[in-house]
Every structure is written in structure tokens, then in C-alpha cells.
């Protein structure tokens, strides 16, 4: 597929709903007795997998226009699925559903995804769930399919060995209907959508510093959820606007949850022209983000606590680094090697085709700014990874080059309207 969308990007737009929040709303809706109306969810390949999986467990889910309605008789009425739960390309679905099913105690199920999921480690969730008493087997003790058998589980106190909201959430889902306190300690705080939403659905959950304490055994009550725009999708528009001449883009109603907004801190540090207008909200924070072209950007050096706050934005931040006025570094991001593809290798191998220079580290990279000319006939690889593909499209626009990507269909995983939304903002030069 060829991409050439160069022009000047101006105007006001929205991005699709937050992927992490949409997955959780569908799951908590299925576990709660009553009707959960989900407004402005992300409707994409990944979230439709979660929707279908919740239907297979017995929730009645309908789609009305752009919204979802989940009707459920509650967690105790969910049943073993007749068929394998297919999770497609979605790591979040695969890991969270494993915890959810362990927590239901009487379910037999098999969970399996596509070729990228087959290579993603699931032992990181199965180890703590097994400590809780869950009976789960994996291929080679590490990979899907995940086979879950009925078991009585008990609460757990767990020290997280890695920063992962998927692992934390799987433990919390398992703990929801277990008598006693499930306690998770984090070293670097990961996204907290499960904690916020579980409290909204009536779970007894408290957060103190980097410790989450969930007292299980409470039935959940259905509540409505309005999903803010996904900052991980907005990130592609933010970077595009910063690096293309004349750009002035406002993205409305984007999640500003502090466990997700690391990219805003980085852009501010770089001296990027970015303005945030926060709206009033009681749950998840959200607001509007205006970004304008900024010709002189400082480099950045990120490591430690900020990494989980921008983990999915690192590919597009590599593009931003190529336009800074000095070398930038990313460290402490080894987790990138366990995403849809090894994102450290993919970022470097594909952006090098534009002439960007990198030094690779085990846990990140150094970017030397600047770029050259793409070789005639160069074929770019998308690695079936939505974030790598969108990164390539933004880079191609910024350097005004028509590139060919082997397969761009994975954009549907998180941002199906990406190309048409860019077209909507583009004015011919
Ligand atoms: O919990 C979630 O919704 C997610 C957590 C992160 O993964 P990890 O938990 O593996 O860090 C992130 O990369 C993923 O896109 C979504
Ligand atoms: C890593 C991602 O998602 P998941 O883990 O759900 O596949 C992502 O969206 O960048």
C-alpha cells in the first residue's frame, strides 16, 4: 500500500475512544448485574474481540450506532464458552480475560489469538494467578493457547516484577470475587484504568502510593461509561503537527489520565507548541489538546517512571526525536520487545530506511536527528503492528516521501479511521 498525504495539517478533530478503557468497560459490564451503556467506545479489531468474548461467556451486548450496551445477569451467571475465546491481535484481551476467567472459578475455557499473540508471554499473568490457586496451562509454560480449568482461588499480595497494567489488571480481575484482600505493589506505576473503573462499578478498591488494595467478594453494579479519546492515537497527530510546517491541530476530548500522559510532558520539555484545556470530570480526566508546528525542538532523555506513562508512544516519539536539535535517548523500555512485535528492532530497522541513525540498547535506543532519501523501490515492513505502521505513515508525510508498506491492515487494531482522519485535516500546500 502506498502512502502520500503531504500538505498542511490544520483544524479540529477527535480520535477514536480509548482502547484500554473500552476493553475494561466491556469486561466489567459483563461481570455486573444490570445494563452498562458505553458511549463513544473504540470500535476496532481489538475491542470487537473483547466484545465477542464477553458474548461467548453469556453477556448480551448490542451495538447502537457508535455505542455499546452490555446487559448481564452478573458474574455468577456467566458460563464456560462452547468454543475457544479468540482474542485476535489483542494482548490486553488475552491477559485480562485470563484473570477474569480465573476469578469466575468454575469456568473451563481456552484462549487463543493470532500469530503475534502466539509469541507474546502469558506466564507473566499465569504465575501470579497460579499463586492465587488458579489452574491454568500454557504452551511451553509461556505462550497461548491459555487453558483455564475450574479452581478455587484465594487473594494474593504481589510485588510486580515488571511495570505492566495488563498483569496488574489480570490479578485485580481475579481478585474481584475472592474473599479477602488482593494487594498489588508496583515499582513504576502503570495505567490505572482498572482501578478507576472497578471503583465506579462498586468494587472495594483503594490506591495508596504504588499499592493497590482490592477487597473481593462484592457484587458489581452496572454503571454507564463514557470513553474519552485515546491519547495513544492522538500521539500520532500530536507528532505530525509538531514536525510539519504550518500545522495547527486541535484534538478534542482526549484522555489526560496522568498514567497515560507522559507524551505531553516530553513535548513540553522539548519546547513544543502544545496547549491543554482540561474539562471537568469525576472519573477519567480528559480535555482538548492543541498542537502547532515547532521548528526548534530540544532532544529528550527518558527512563524510569515515565516509561509506562508513554510505553505505546515510543515508536512515534522516535520520529519526533529525528526532528529534534540534538540526540535523544530512550532507556528502561525493554518491555517494547514484548509487544505486537519487538518494537525496538522494528523502529530502528524501519526508520533507518529513512536515513535516521540509531544506537540500539537492550532496553531502548539513541536517536541522532536528521534523515536522508529513501532508496528507490524500498519496501517498508509494518510487522502487523498498528503503532509501527502509523509511525511510518507520519514519518513519510513529514519527509514528503511516498513509501510502500507491505501490509497496513493492522491499523484497524486501534485507529481504523487514521488515514481518513488525516485526510480531513490536510489542506493542499
Ligand atoms: O492494560 C492495558 O490496557 C495496556 C497495557 C500496556 O501493556 P503492558 O501491560 O504489557 O505494559 C500497553 O502497552 C497496552 O497497549 C495496553
Ligand atoms: C501493545 C498494545 O496493545 P496490546 O498489548 O493490547 O496488544 C498497543 O496497543 O500498543
Q: Name the CATH architecture of the largest domain.
A: Alpha-beta prism
Secondary-structure-derived class:
alpha/beta
What average pLDDT do the residues reach? 97
- Give the end-to-end Cα distance, rounded to a whole number of Å: 23 Å
Low-confidence stretches: none
Rounded to an integer in angstroms, the radius of gyration calculated over CA atoms is 21 Å
User: Approximately how much beta-strand content do the residues carry?
Assistant: 25-35%
What is the CATH C level class of the largest domain, in words? Alpha Beta
> Which hetero ligands occur in this complex?
shikimate-3-phosphate, phosphoenolpyruvate
Shape, please? globular
CATH topology of the largest domain: UDP-n-acetylglucosamine1-carboxyvinyl-transferase, Chain
Number of folding domains?
Answer: 2
Number of helices: 12
Topology record:
Blueprint: E1 2-3, E2 8-14, H1 19-31, E3 33-39, H2 45-56, E4 60-64, E5 67-73, E6 85-86, H3 91-104, E7 109-112, H4 123-131, E8 135-139, E9 143-149, E10 157-159, H5 165-175, E11 180-185, H6 193-200, E12 204-208, E13 211-216, E14 225-226, H7 231-243, E15 248-255, H8 262-269, E16 273-278, E17 286-292, E18 301-302, H9 314-322, E19 328-330, H10 343-351, E20 357-361, E21 364-368, E22 379-380, H11 386-398, E23 403-405, H12 418-425, E24 426-427
Parallel strand pairs: 2-15, 3-14, 6-7, 10-11, 18-19, 22-23
Antiparallel strand pairs: 1-23, 2-24, 3-5, 4-5, 7-9, 8-9, 11-13, 12-13, 15-17, 16-17, 19-21, 20-21
Helix pairs in contact: 1-2, 1-6, 3-5, 4-5, 7-9, 7-11, 10-11
The structure holds shikimate-3-phosphate and phosphoenolpyruvate.
Amino acid at each position: 500500500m502506498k502512502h502520500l498525504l503531504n500538505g498542511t495539517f490544520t483544524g479540529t478533530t477527535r480520535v477514536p475512544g480509548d482502547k484500554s478503557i473500552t476493553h475494561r468497560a466491556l469486561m466489567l459490564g459483563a461481570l455486573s448485574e444490570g445494563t452498562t451503556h458505553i458511549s463513544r467506545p473504540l470500535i476496532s479489531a481489538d475491542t470487537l474481540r473483547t466484545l465477542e468474548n464477553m458474548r461467548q461467556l453469556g453477556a448480551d451486548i448490542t451495538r447502537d450506532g457508535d455505542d455499546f450496551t452490555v446487559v448481564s445477569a452478573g458474574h455468577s451467571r456467566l458460563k464456560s464458552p462452547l468454543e475457544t475465546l479468540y482474542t485476535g491481535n489483542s494482548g490486553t484481551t488475552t491477559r485480562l480475560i485470563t484473570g477474569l476467567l480465573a476469578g469466575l472459578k468454575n469456568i473451563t475455557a481456552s484462549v487463543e489469538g493470532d500469530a503475534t499473540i502466539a509469541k507474546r508471554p502469558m506466564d507473566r499473568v499465569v504465575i501470579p494467578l497460579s499463586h492465587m490457586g488458579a489452574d491454568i496451562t500454557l504452551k511451553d509454560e509461556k505462550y497461548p493457547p491459555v487453558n483455564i480449568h475450574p479452581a478455587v482461588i484465594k487473594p494474593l499480595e504481589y510485588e510486580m516484577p515488571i511495570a505492566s497494567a495488563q498483569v496488574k489488571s489480570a490479578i485485580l480481575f481475579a481478585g474481584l470475587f475472592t474473599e479477602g484482600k488482593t494487594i498489588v505493589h508496583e515499582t513504576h506505576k502503570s495505567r490505572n484504568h482498572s482501578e478507576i473503573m472497578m471503583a465506579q462499578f462498586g468494587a472495594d478498591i483503594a490506591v495508596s502510593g504504588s499499592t493497590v488494595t482490592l477487597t473481593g467478594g462484592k457484587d458489581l453494579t452496572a454503571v454507564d461509561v463514557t470513553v474519552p479519546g485515546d491519547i495513544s492515537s492522538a500521539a500520532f497527530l500530536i507528532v505530525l503537527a509538531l514536525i510539519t510546517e504550518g500545522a495547527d491541530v486541535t484534538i478534542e476530548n482526549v484522555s489526560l489520565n496522568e498514567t497515560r500522559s507522559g507524551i505531553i510532558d516530553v513535548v513540553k520539555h522539548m519546547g513544543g507548541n502544545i496547549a491543554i484545556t482540561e474539562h471537568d470530570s469525576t472519573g477519567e480526566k480528559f480535555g482538548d489538546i492543541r498542537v502547532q508546528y515547532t521548528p526548534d525542538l530540544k532532544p529528550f532523555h527518558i527512563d524510569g517512571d515515565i516509561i509506562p506513562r508513554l510505553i505505546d508512544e515510543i515508536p512515534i516519539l522516535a520520529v519526533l526525536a529525528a526532528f529534534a536539535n540534538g540526540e535523544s535517548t530512550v532507556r528502561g523500555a525493554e518491555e517494547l520487545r514484548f509487544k505486537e512485535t519487538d518494537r525496538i528492532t522494528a523502529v530502528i530497522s524501519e526508520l533507518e530506511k529513512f536515513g535516521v541513525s540509531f544506537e540500539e540498547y537492550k532496553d531502548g535506543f539513541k536517536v541522532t536527528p536528521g534523515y536522508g532519501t529513501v532508496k528507490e523501490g524500498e519496501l517498508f515492513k509494518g510487522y502487523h503492528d498498528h503503532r509501527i505502521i502509523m509511525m511510518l505513515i507520519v514519518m513519510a508525510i513529514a519527509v514528503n516521501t511516498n513509501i510502500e508498506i507491505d501490509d497496513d491492515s493492522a491499523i484497524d487494531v486501534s485507529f481504523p479511521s487514521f488515514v481518513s482522519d488525516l485526510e480531513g485535516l490536510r489542506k493542499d500546500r
